[in-house]
Design a protein that fits this description.
Strand order of the largest sheet: 3-2-1-4-5-6-10
Organism: Aurantiacibacter atlanticus
Oligomer: single chain
Number of strands: 12
Protein name: dTDP-glucose 4,6-dehydratase
Largest sheet: 7 strands, parallel
Number of helices: 12
GO biological process, one term: nucleotide-sugar metabolic process
Helix content: 40-55%
Distance between the termini: 41 Å
CATH superfamily of one domain: NAD(P)-binding Rossmann-like Domain
Cofactor: NAD(+)
CATH class of one domain: Alpha Beta
Order of helices and strands: EHEEHEHHEHEEHEEHEEHHEHHH
Keywords: Lyase, NAD
Radius of gyration: 20 Å
CATH architecture of one domain: 3-Layer(aba) Sandwich
Length: 352
């Protein structure tokens, strides 16, 4: 039996990880530390008996130290982060505070308890990061490997790059046992509807425009959140301390192709489930029209990276990681999750 501290465990990826860990490691205990900002919700992990939710700030070093000591935590999985690029452009300070200062606070607490106290406790600090720290690729450039130079282009990615460097420094300077995973674009259940897939799904249901940045040809690799959780599990079980592992979904697609997939899946769902027309009468598909008529081009985002791609060969070779979800199946499952969980997304304070 192990005791885990999961920061940001009431958010999208962290919440999915809590569900995943409870199902796959039922004897372990989890303490979830979350500020419960707009993207963190108690309902995301409601019913997970192994998880104890504590509302608190990762910048509160004393709180984290006390949790590590009192709960005899041996594994810290660090999800907590401000992550929406658009918000980092309009308000970068919160990203500096949470992603850099917050990570430093966690590292200080972990060092104090796991190293300075001299307990000799086997430990692991796992840090979740993003492929955005590597910058932008040209159309023919090789995919990001773990050796790719850091070239962050937004306040968000710059703050994550800084946190990556801090984690690495605490390993090399103080001997903290760490691993880092850099993931591609996640999608799946419990994602706050500001990111592309849930935003466009819910906009399609309500007959609202689908706003497409620029020409819609920015390319991303898409990773189902359950595959991401499996990758983190593999990092904790098999990852070498001090190493970084790229976790991808093997689905490199331009945004326009993703949007066309969303439109097609919504049309398919309305054709197959008669009740959807009554539940969502403003959707074009409720009236026999294609969802694609909602596509609307808008001014491109400032500093918009053109292409991300993940080389996950290191994770495959060392950890045995292979994504289990195809994008088509994963998107279809995600759409039906949002259709089946209307109560969740209506209760989280969105305009939906």
């Amino acid at each position: 039996m192990a005791n885990l501290l999961i920061t940001g465990g009431a958010g999208f990826i962290g919440g999915n990880f809590v569900h995943y860990w409870a199902q796959n490691h039922p004897d372990d205990a989890m303490v979830v530390l979350d500020c419960l900002t707009y993207a963190g919700n108690e309902s995301t992990i409601a019913g997970v008996e192994q998880a104890e939710l504590i509302k608190g700030d990762i910048r509160d070093t004393d709180l984290v130290e006390n949790l590590l000591r009192e709960r005899e935590i041996s594994t810290l999985v660090h999800f907590a982060a401000e992550s929406h690029v658009d918000r980092s452009i309009s308000g970068p300070d919160a990203f500096i505070d949470t992603n850099i200062l917050g990570t430093n606070s966690l590292l200080k607490a972990a060092r104090a308890v796991w190293l300075d106290d001299g307990t000799g406790l086997d430990h692991r600090f796992h840090h979740i990061s993003t492929d955005e720290v590597y910058g932008s690729l040209g159309p023919d450039d090789p995919a990001f490997s773990e050796a790719h130079q850091y070239q962050p282009n937004s306040p968000y990615s710059a703050s994550k790059a800084a946190s990556d460097h801090l984690v690495r420094a605490y390993h090399h300077t103080f001997g903290l046992e760490i691993t880092t995973s850099n993931c591609s674009n996640n999608y799946g259940p419990y994602q706050y509807p500001e990111k592309l897939i849930p935003l466009f799904l819910l906009n399609a249901l309500h007959g609202r425009p689908l706003p497409i940045y620029g020409d819609g040809m920015n390319v991303r690799d898409w990773l189902h959140v359950e595959d991401h959780c499996r990758g983190i599990d593999a990092c904790l079980a098999k990852g070498r301390s001090g190493e970084t592992y790229n976790i991808g979904g093997g689905a490199e697609l331009p945004n326009m192709a993703v949007i066309d997939h969303i439109c097609a899946e919504v049309d398919r769902a309305f054709a197959e489930v008669d009740e959807l027309a009554a539940r969502y009468p403003d959707a074009p598909a409720a009236n026999g029209r294609p969802t694609s008529e909602l596509k609307t081009f808008v001014t491109d985002r400032k500093g918009h990276d053109r292409r991300y791609a993940i080389d996950e060969s290191k994770a495959r070779g060392e950890l045995g990681y292979v994504p289990a979800h195809t994008f088509d199946d994963g998107l279809r499952q995600t759409l039906h999750w949002y259709l089946d969980n209307e109560k969740w997304w209506k209760a989280i304070g969105t305009a939906c």
